[in-house]
Specification:
Order of helices and strands of chain A: HHHEEEEEEEEE
CATH architecture of the largest domain in chain A: Sandwich
Structural class of chain A: alpha+beta
Number of domains of chain B: 4
Distance between the termini of chain A: 129 Å
Largest sheet of chain B: 12 strands, mixed
Shape of chain B: elongated
CATH class of the largest domain in chain B: Mainly Beta
Shape of chain A: rod-shaped
Number of strands of chain B: 50
Strand content of chain A: 25-35%
Oligomer: heterodimer
Number of strands of chain A: 9
Radius of gyration of chain B: 47 Å
Number of domains of chain A: 2
CATH topology of the largest domain in chain A: Immunoglobulin-like
Largest sheet of chain A: 5 strands, antiparallel
CATH superfamily of the largest domain in chain A: Immunoglobulins
Structural class of chain B: mainly beta
Number of helices of chain A: 3
CATH topology of the largest domain in chain B: Coagulation Factor XIII, Chain A, domain 1
Chain lengths: 182, 605
């Protein structure tokens, strides 16, 4: 009986004891936990990497597509082009009639009636050419609905002649117009 | 379903649960990536489609907007101010916002602009569709005067111009690419062949640099373009290259207006002669255009527009699309390129001619033509007809002097304005520059028989007006062909009752360049008498004029029972050769030499 009783008392403590006494079992459990934790960590890391990569790619692509979209929606119209022979000043009045803000003028080209390039001017930085708004403030970009002008000196132009002017914007769009010198 | 044995083996396999977890993570990652990419692409596509739709709507509204000005008046107030008034008509189907007024004085090369959105001006700058609104303002412009040429226009928020221009310059529309090749259109022109198709080797007529084209004519359209492909690729046009004209107003919403037709590319040689449309093995190679080059021309033949291009949309712009089935070094492809917007308009036939006809008489819109010349012009168009005032003839001594313009279209009329601003009527017309043919004529004269009378005057006609000149070797004038001239007086001044200088060529008709020189004869008065009176008759008889120094035959014939006796004269300046010739007979015939005035008497017994 005592043996039986002892056996009954010892029975519940047997797994823990056996586990504690069984070094191999402890090793298996630890290993399983470590591997599981490693896999979870690695999975989370990969998940985070994928998320980050997606965000970066999304951002870069969005910027690229956004610029294209802005370029597509961009529209500039010439209000008036005036040449003053006494000073060789060409005043070019523009209006942003598109759906895109922040339109910058990067270059202007003058062609004669035979399409020969007469004069040109480019910006040397990313700011765009300086535009004067009708309130006499200066800016380098035109927002939607805004009007502005720039003055360009193409040198002497033949009187009573036909010329073409082309402006290039930061987004790569170009706009042509024709004018006649006095 | 995992069996007990499988579960047991799984428990025994310490890597089993890790593998399952890893697999779950892998699936999650893949799902995450797929979802991310899908939503990303969906988002981008939606955004781009929205952008394209928005841009198309923007362009559609800009093309639909139609604001015009009428009843424009400029009143210069004298203190460098101008009263500007006009009526603004929104003829489009959408409201229009006006943002700025521009006024230009082209005479003094000055301009001003006015922001009409300024609330202080109190203008209702948003015009509803179909509305009309009067506009009046006063602007300052230094140096303006009433005689200056002034024009004005409004700029709308969509970038259009509302103006009243008799002529709107062609706006260059640039197509940027053919496929992936960067192209740059530089110039557009067309050649009008009228109602007849161009024939091989036919020279191209004068080009037109306008986007208004005759809808019922054969045309050759020329386009100058550059191959600006950064990769330096070559473009090869073949007989598969076509140009399409489409009606942009047609389509799904208005299928009845959807009209399109194609024109083939054609060959024009260096001398400007039309050859033929491209044949299957013809090709035109466009290498990358060198810098500073003007580019290369391509031509295509346009048949008259089909009858479907009629009705209310016949004046609508047609976008001329270009489809190039063109070969490049990287392959063959086609691409639709909006090129230029054309207006297909009906025309009337206007013949500009001159009387006489030929070259050098008339300039039309600044270009010299050979008359008669047929134009196909649009009704209401304005052209400048300029007549050369004096055109020398091919032969020496001939010239043609312009007198007036005349036309036949009702109401017919004429104009004496040498540079005539011609407004094309709604029906065919013949406009004629009328010239007067003139000859260089020298009005001289000669004296026969001596003497020094006063030189005669000559009256003649020049450009329908009478003129007079004193005859002589230097009296050279331009006289109208077919007109008459008259020498006066006849006899010349200096004549008397006994002598005169007289001509029987005092008048005539101018018909060529020459020297007209009538002869004035010096004549003496010689009186023939019969004695006794009634005894006979003489020939000549009575009072006569005989050329000085001439020898004339004189005859006397008896009457009744008389017989001729002799001739007698009262002056020694008249010599009778045989005074008694026929004495005793019934008649006498002899000669008399006249060197002065006197009387010759025939005596009978």
């Amino acid at each position: 009986m005592p043996n039986t009783k002892n056996n009954k008392n010892k029975k519940p403590k047997r797994p823990l004891r056996s586990l504690l006494s069984d070094k191999r079992a402890i090793s298996v459990a630890l290993t399983t936990m470590i591997i599981t934790a490693g896999v979870i960590a690695a999975g989370i890391a990969v998940l985070y990497w994928a998320y980050s990569w997606g965000n970066v790619a999304n951002k870069q692509y969005s910027e690229a597509i956004g610029m294209s979209q802005d370029a597509v929606k961009e529209s500039i119209a010439f209000e008036y082009v005036h040449f003053l022979p006494s000073s060789n000043q060409l005043s070019v009045y523009l209006i942003n009639c598109g759906k895109t803000d922040n339109v910058k003028i990067f270059g202007v080209y003058i062609y004669d009636s035979s399409s020969a390039l007469i004069a040109s001017q480019h910006t040397t930085n990313n700011d765009g050419m300086t535009l004067t708004l009708f309130d006499n403030s200066n800016t380098t970009s035109l927002d939607t609905g805004k009007e502005g002008y720039f003055i360009f000196n193409p040198g002497p132009l033949s009187p009573t002649s036909f010329f073409n002017i082309r402006i290039i914007t930061e987004r790569g769009r170009n706009y042509d117009y024709s004018f006649t010198t006095p | 379903m995992i069996t007990h044995s499988q579960h047991h083996s799984l428990r025994r396999n310490r890597k089993g649960y890790s593998g399952i977890i890893a697999a779950i993570f892998l699936v999650l990652i893949l799902l995450f990536l797929y979802f991310n990419v899908y939503t990303f692409m969906l988002d981008r596509n939606t955004a781009f489609q929205d952008t394209v739709g928005e841009t198309q709507q923007m362009n559609l509204e800009r093309n639909t907007e139609q604001v015009t000005l009428s009843d424009i008046t400029f009143t210069v107030l004298g203190n460098n101010r101008i009263d500007v008034s006009c009526t603004i008509n929104n003829k489009g189907s959408i409201p229009s916002q006006l943002v700025r007024l521009w006024v230009e004085d082209t005479t003094i090369n000055k301009y001003v602009n006015l922001d009409i959105r300024d609330p202080n001006l109190h203008y209702d700058y948003v015009l509803p569709a179909g509305s009309r609104q009067g506009f009046t303002t006063t602007i300052d412009m230094l140096g303006v005067s009433q005689t200056d040429e002034i024009t004005m226009w409004f700029v709308t928020g969509r970038g259009n111009k509302a103006a009243f221009f008799p002529y709107t310059p062609t706006e260059h529309i640039t197509a940027r690419e053919i496929g992936s090749i960067l192209m740059n259109w530089m110039e557009f022109r067309y050649y009008d062949f009228g109602e007849n198709p161009p024939q091989p080797n036919q020279m191209l007529p004068e080009p037109h640099y306008s986007c208004d084209v005759a809808r019922d004519h054969y045309l050759i359209i020329g386009a100058l373009f550059k191959n600006e492909d950064p990769a330096g690729r070559t473009l090869i046009l073949t007989s598969d290259t076509y140009v399409w004209a489409v009606n942009p107003r047609g389509g799904e919403s208005e299928p009845s207006l959807k009209t399109e037709f194609a024109w083939p590319i054609c060959k024009v040689d260096a001398q400007g002669r039309y050859i033929q449309p491209f044949q299957p093995f013809d090709s035109q190679v466009f290498l990358p255009t060198p810098e500073n080059s003007k580019g290369d021309m391509i031509y295509f033949v346009c048949s008259p527009s089909p009858p479907t291009f009629t009705g209310p949309y016949q004046r609508s712009p047609r976008v001329l699309n270009i489809i190039f089935y063109a070969n490049t070094t990287t392959g063959a492809y086609g691409q639709n390129i909006p090129f230029v917007a054309l207006k297909f308009l009906p025309t009337v036939t206007i013949t500009v001619t001159s009387m006489p006809s030929g070259r050098g008489y008339v300039n039309v819109d600044g270009t010299e033509i050979t008359t008669p010349h047929t134009f196909y012009w649009f009704p209401g168009g304005i052209h400048t007809l300029e007549a050369n005032p004096i055109v020398p003839g091919v032969a020496a001594g001939v010239r043609y002097v312009w007198t007036n313009w005349s036309w036949t279209a009702p109401p017919s009329g004429s104009s004496t304005s040498q540079t005539y601003t011609y407004t094309v009527p709604s029906s065919d017309d013949i406009v004629t520059a009328n010239y007067q043919t003139q000859y260089s004529v020298t009005f001289d004269y000669q004296i026969s028989g001596g003497g020094s009378p006063t030189a005669p005057s000559v009256s003649y006609m020049s450009l329908g007006l009478p003129y007079s000149v004193t005859a002589g070797p230097s009296a050279t004038v331009w006289a109208d062909s077919g007109s008459t001239y008259t020498y006066t007086p006849n006899p010349l001044s200096g004549s008397s009752e006994s002598q005169r200088w007289w001509t029987n060529q005092k008048s005539g008709t101018v018909s060529l360049s020459t020297t007209i020189s009538p002869t004035y004869y010096h004549q003496y008065q010689v009186i023939f008498e019969v004695s006794p009176s009634g005894a006979g008759a003489t020939d000549p008889a009575g009072t006569t004029w005989q050329n000085a120094g001439s020898t004339i035959t004189i005859t006397a014939t008896k009457r009744g029972g008389f017989k001729f006796d002799h001739w007698s004269t009262n002056t020694g300046l008249i010599t009778i050769a045989d005074p008694t010739n026929g004495q005793g007979s019934g008649s006498s015939t002899t000669t008399a030499t006249i060197n002065g005035s006197g009387t010759i008497t025939a005596y009978f017994t």
